[in-house]
Amino acid sequence: MKPETKKYRFLEMIPGLLIWTTLVFSVILSFWRPLWVISFIIAFDLFWLFRILHFIFFVNLSFIKYKKVIKENWLAKVQALPNWERIYHVIYLPTAGEPLKVLEDTFQSLLNSSFPAKKMIVVLGGEARLGDDFPPKAEAIKQKFSGKFFRIFTTLHPDGLPDEMKGKGANAHWMGITSKKEIDALNIPYENLIVSYFDSDTCVHAEYFSYLTYKFLTHPTPLRVSYQPAVLYNNNIWDAPAAMRVTAFGTIFWLLTELMRPERMYTFSSHSMSFQALVDVDFWQKDIVTDDSRIFLQCFFRYHGEYAVEPMYIPVSMDTVMDKDYWKSFRNLYKQQRRWAWGVEHFPYMMWNFKKDKLIPWYKKLKYTWNLVEGMYSWATAPILIFILGRLPLWVAGHGEESASVIVQNAPYVLQWLMRISMGGILVSAIISVLLLPARPQQHPKWKYPLMLLQWILLPVTLILFGSIPAVEAQTRLMLGKKYHLGFWVTPKTR
């Protein structure tokens, strides 16, 4: 093993070592030094109380901005700007066996945009490894939507190309390099092209492209930012089981709070950027799982830290996890969350490139390192520490010689008080989740609205089963080495 490889392997091990050190020592010290652990748990819960208050504040601000933005006529604002007609949108839609109905809904949402569809170039990419699945769907899409957009290109990603991982990133990379030839033939300057990278089930808000165009044309450095919308997993939210809905809204609320703090953000899921930046980094990386967020880091290092994320308070809607029965739905949700948690693979990549790049200011290196490490660490450990391991030292101390300690006697009341205040975060989440719901389908009765509120009692369970555990598994797999690394898993689309 080369020294450089050994160093990179050590970086891969750090996140997993952090969480397992915390979990193992929490158990050991609960029996050996329970008072220490009780003090730590109280401090940890207090820290999370401040995090919840922080969440309540920012998610409300973000929601207010969101409601304001979606009411604006952004096309009128764009048309008031000079030379807005020069802008074209390139939309990449990688697919992997999604039903034709899902693809048709996505294309129809593009067509329903206020921004002219004749200014859109749509690239639909299929996988050759799926046999004859893609060509008939691509032909059906072309027949239905041909002539309605400026161009529709289709690509077919060959199977077995070298240095690739089977997944969306490899497909997207092939789509990029293949479509570039077609786009170059159109003789449109790269600085006039805005790329949107969407999952195949993404339905955009009618004002999305108008709002994106406005942000692009009014930004001081439009080629040096990615544009991150609010991601809503609500295409099929009324049909999904309660646990899936709560988990989906957890992701939605996390991103809404992040929109208020763009200095912390990476791109996530569906997002937009300039075509120039995409070409500069040679498109999406083809040998990783989390290509949607890695593209931000590719640009960040390509421009030596002079790259950022611009928040967009406008939604794109996608499917929440759902399958034909509950067991398959739960299994698919776990796999989806584990795949997202595999974003920890960015940690060694960041550390490796930070060391090599001397032009990035040290404070930016420190900020991005802290944000990633703290986020991944909390994702894996916080629910387990708060809801499970936090009770162990209290039980041990209550049956030992420490039972007379003031800390032991008062700790249950302190923790109970902290948990009651924290319930405010659940209440805010429940209310906003109902306000974000799409129109109720006729087949669902009105009494399901109260159920949408009551479902939030499942939050502690979903945080552990579909939060901590998949995050622990992902970081452990990275720690154990390449043999245990995750491949890309495609979330089945069912409506």
Give a brief description.
This protein is an alpha/beta fold and 495 residues long. Helices cover 56% and strands 10% of the residues.
Describe this entry's structure for a reader.
- The chain has 495 residues and is an alpha/beta fold.
- Helix content is 56%, strand content 10%.
- The chain has a single domain, classed as Spore Coat Polysaccharide Biosynthesis Protein SpsA, Chain A (Alpha-Beta Complex).
- The protein has 17 helices and eight strands.
- Strands 3-2-1-4-7-6-8-5 form an eight-stranded mixed beta sheet, sandwiched between helices.
- Helix 1 (3-32) crosses helix 12 (346-356), helix 1 (3-32) packs across helix 17 (459-480) and helix 11 (326-341) crosses helix 17 (459-480).
- The N and C termini lie far apart (48 Å).
- Indicate the overall shape: globular
Largest beta-sheet characterization:
8 strands, mixed
At the fourth CATH level, what is the homologous superfamily? Spore Coat Polysaccharide Biosynthesis Protein SpsA, Chain A
SSE arrangement, N to C: HHHEHEHEHEEHEHEHHEHHHHHHH
Major sheet: order of its strands? 3-2-1-4-7-6-8-5
**CATH architecture designation:** Alpha-Beta Complex
Q: Give average pLDDT, whole number.
A: 92
**Count of beta strands:** 8
Please give the alpha-carbon distance between the first and last residues.
48 Å
Helix content: 55-70%
Number of helices: 17
Q: Examine the coordinates and then state which fold CATH places here, giving the name of the CATH topology.
A: Spore Coat Polysaccharide Biosynthesis Protein SpsA, Chain A
Given this structure, which CATH class is correct?
Answer: Alpha Beta
Structural class: alpha/beta
Total number of domains: 1
Beta content:
5-15%
